[in-house]
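Task card 7
Instruction: Convert sequence to structure tokens.
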Amino acid sequence: MTPVSVAVAGLGTIAQTIHLPLLERLAGRFTLAAVADVSPALTDRIGQRYGVPPQRRFTDVGALLGWGGFDALLLLTSGTHAPAAADALRRGHAVLAEKPLGYALREIDELAGLGEAVTDRLMVGYMKQYDPAVRRLAALVERIGGPGAIHAIDVTVLHPSSAAQLAFAQLPPPAGDVPAAESAALRATAEEPLRTALGEEPAGPLRELYGIIMNSICHELSLIRLLAGVPATVDHVALWPAKGAGEGDPPSVELSGALPAGGRYGIRWLYQPDYPAYRETVAVHHATGSAELVFPAPYLLGVPTLLTETSGRHEELARTEFRSPVGGFEAQLTAFHALVTRGTPPLSGIRAAAADLSFAQQAVRRLAAQDGLEPAGETAHA
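Output:
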């Protein structure tokens, strides 16, 4: 097994709770070469915790890439990942970029301009696709005849507040050491692709829907893509507030439409700030049975995903259960190692990122049509 030296850019929640502990667990496959974050205090704290020398701790992704003493990059920064991913790919690094890869189709088109020989080294972080329970379900779909055999896919996400989900981790509060001018510049950079996608001043519901799809529901889309292909239509969109939701809380979202090979999908993303724990179910119904995935909270390592398969006729029903031996994040990192060392293609790359953006823009356009709003930017042509 060839160890891969990796740099980690972005040391926030997902890095601290998931990726850094897993890199330590998978020490036979990875060595941590460098870290970067806009917060100097956080960079130093994480560098000390994981034994990264001071000269390999950076507060700018560009400076990290300029150093270049590594094979691959875990890109876990906030906002769009497309510019930094393009820079890293040009320099010859493989990249695992957290979702979403970008917020505008123009960003993805610019990345695609690098050519397949370059972008083939890019993996987009849809970890649920790599979960062993999901892979087992995908194999079941192939056995029953492929995507055309699927009658319906129903997805329900019960989403508590982020604070509730992360209480167990006891993460320290932000150091507050990023200069105000730098923070403002980062916010402006993050807004640019959103303006490209949605126009200068999109109506509040349109922006909310787009953000929820690209920041969260894209995970559910990745599962639908894997099992049945990219959704063919977005026929219905609904947004509504949860009981007890406060100012600034996101609405719940409902989406439905047609699958490309026949059948229907439905997604209900329910924001319930006081719900006891995150829970996601994905049910696939076909002519002779059903299969249901139940995902635990994504930040909990070592808690298995449950797959329940039900099949048969009338009194001959059979039910089997399977629990993942490893989580999706760990399986994804193992797949990333295979991409770097053997060129094994990722399950989601630049085309998948473009498909999710197109879906989100179609959904925004559908909501605009339902509510009598005027879409703008790329969404006006979705």
